[in-house]
Amino acid sequence: MNVKTLLASAALATATFGIAAHAESDNPTIQARQQAMKTIGQNFKIVGDTAKGTMEFDAAAIQAALTTISETAATVPTLFEEEVVDAESDASDDIWANWDDFVSKAEALQAAAADASGMVSSADDLGAVMGSVGGACGACHKPYKL
């Protein structure tokens, strides 16, 4: 992957999956969901910032971030099992209308992050990571995030 493509992917991922500023819900179920999404976003930001070159490459930090993304993604279906929404939630009602698809997308993110954590040995590997993990995030955000 060339440098321009890598930087474009990193910029898009950071813009798309960065930590969004929104109000916190008072509902504990939604708070738990929001915290999980923040955790995923914060860890994906480590990968994106490293891909952009604004963070020094550290294979252990990248692998830890990807492991955290994978572990957190594994909790997503449980966090969304109960159909709870409020004004402070970015969750679309389509989650519950298309439950099996939503769960498969969470599982795809979990698998992409787990697979990627084992393939990062240099900054040159980050383009593929941004594509696979970022793509899995986007595949869920597009239909299921308001």
Describe this structure in words.
This protein is mainly α. It has helices at 3-17, 28-52, 59-80, 94-97, 99-117, 126-144. It starts with a helix and ends with a helix.
Low-confidence stretches: 1-21
Derived from helix and strand composition plus strand pairing, the structural class reads mainly alpha
Radius of gyration of CA atoms, rounded to a whole number: 15 Å
- Roughly how much helix do the residues carry, as a percent range? over 70%
Q: Average pLDDT, to the nearest integer? A: 87
> Which sequence of SSEs, written as H and E, runs from N to C?
HHHHHH
Number of helices: 6
Task: Report the strand count.
Answer: 0
- How many angstroms does the end-to-end distance come to? 32 Å
Q: Main β-sheet: number of strands, strand sense, barrel status?
A: none
Proportion of beta-strand residues: under 5%
Shape: elongated
What are the key terms here?
disordered N terminus, 71% helix, 0% strand, elongated, mainly alpha, 146 residues
In short:
With 146 residues, this protein is mainly α.
Layout of SSEs?
Layout: H1 3-17, H2 28-52, H3 59-80, H4 94-97, H5 99-117, H6 126-144
Helix pairs in contact: 1-2, 1-6, 2-3, 2-6, 3-5, 5-6
